[in-house]
Amino acid sequence: MYGSLNWKELAVDPVEVERLSHLLRIPKISAKLLAARGHGDPRSARFFLEPHLSNLEDPFKIPRLKKSMERLALAIENGESIAVIGDYDVDGITSTALMVYALRHFGASVNYYIPRRFTEGYGLSQPVLERTFSNGAPDIFIALDCATNSTEQLQWVRERGSLPIVIDHHRATRPIDDGLLLVNPNAFCGSEGSNNEIFCTGGLVFKCIYGLLKILREMGNGKALTYNLRGQLDLVTLATVADVVPLVGENRIFVRHGLKELQNPWRVGTRAIVEQVIAERGKTFSATDLSFKVCPRINASGRIADATLPVEMFLTEDFDRAKEIADQLTKMNAERQRIESEITEEASRMVDDNYAGSNSIVLFNDSWHTGVIGIVAGKLMQRYRKPCVVLSKDGNNTAKGSGRCVNGLNLVDLLSKCSSYLGAWGGHPLAAGIGMPACNVDRFREAFEVHVSEALKIIDVANDLEIAEWIEPSDVTEAFVHQLRKLEPYGSGNQQPIFAIRGVRFLSQARIFGSRGQHFNFAFRGGDGIVRGVAWSRSDALPLQQPCDIAVRLGLFCRDGNRVVQAELIDFRKGNCGKVAPQHGSVCAAAVDHVSCER
Questions:
Q1: Dihedral (C-alpha) 306, 311, 313, 315: value to the nearest 10 degrees?
Q2: Predicted confidence (pLDDT) per residue in 370-386, tens digit
Q3: Most CB within 10 Å of its CB: which of 443, 453, 555, 560?
Q4: What is 6-12+465-574's CATH topology?
């Protein structure tokens, strides 16, 4: 809710900022942001500002990667059959396309399978395994973005004569088999030589292919010499942005260079889906555009239809076919938006009526579409700033859904304390998939509230909005915004800075727009002229006519061939308040990194 956040300006050493600005010859605001994000050392700051591909680490530092890729290289050389299963979200889809493209390039015989969400469920379910093995057992079975905790299913695979290789980034909730070829840094935290990067599966697949290339070249495989590794960063970038992993370290390198690949894609499938966005936004786009425009289209088929469509789009060499699929995905996404909006409205009413005094939210409705409730959970978490679980009926006696969590709390830890009520579950500290007997929902709701409340007594989850700097309306210019471009790409772990602008006078009454009147536009006078602004999903809280202090993200937008400054409203306060001292609350209402990538 607007006006409910404590605005807290970044506190950094001004001497450090001056030194960094002078040594690197960068604006003071850039130096301030770098220092605040742990890059006060000039060497670290330079590495951050200039993320070169040559700075990628040796892939063999990741536990079990070398052994796994040596076995895969042997399979390629021996002509063994390979099956690949990937998840039905953007990370799983792009990971599957990356792996299948590479294996086919190297001459391998490979088939791929994506679980059908509504009939086969998530991951290595028995139905998808039986479909995969229906024409015989492959020699090598590769599971992507799933299966770290699928002990019984992997044993089923072995019993049929296949060797499983798992590439995944989900947290391990049970002991790992010593003999399993598992590439997952999150399953080996603290292991000697482990890589501490938080990769999505697409990033891990890239590292695996990088290692596989090294091995194949040493073996004298000529096809490995013609493989375009850099060209695969288009799909790695989509996966990294969609899965909201921190855009620091190697992930930052992936996305910085992947955005360049996406501007002029060689892959016809990437070009087809990107052109859907370029037509709407102009010639260039950012990681944010991927989050809100491209990734939802790729996700849409897995949410309401068949996720093999986007994999086919990325693998085909026929642009007409790729464009046909991209058009289908855009239509599916529009339908997904309609369904999700209806459920979000209904769920919001339930929260307003029943959860005013709670620290958590658990909603269950057996008629809600299971393909979109993860998005709904994310939106509710953002709006109410509480850990949120949204469930629907999956079969006669099962509740299935997704959870989203605020920064400062760990959803995996919270769920583990409620595990006696759960069936299958797993995920990350900020997001998880959840299943349970429908009869357990009420008891789970009570236990979840207890454990969230206990965690809040120990962990200070403050209701703070981080302000990069207070500025005047006249400071808002194209030059001011442009000087921040070297800090991009923005995303989790490298949030786009928020600026507080004093005493803004809106030029006219805000204009409501959107199919449900949920957004509004506004305008004010900046240093270069009129600054246009937008506020998403909160038309119930319009700014008044008197001057306001506003908290905004600033960006450059292409309008009629010209670059103009656009402001995205995050919060506002009536009157010209000036700087506000931070106040810390004890409620679970953190500004969050993990947000829904779908509007």
A1: -150
A2: 889 999 999 999 888 89
A3: 555
A4: OB fold (Dihydrolipoamide Acetyltransferase, E2P) (2.40.50)
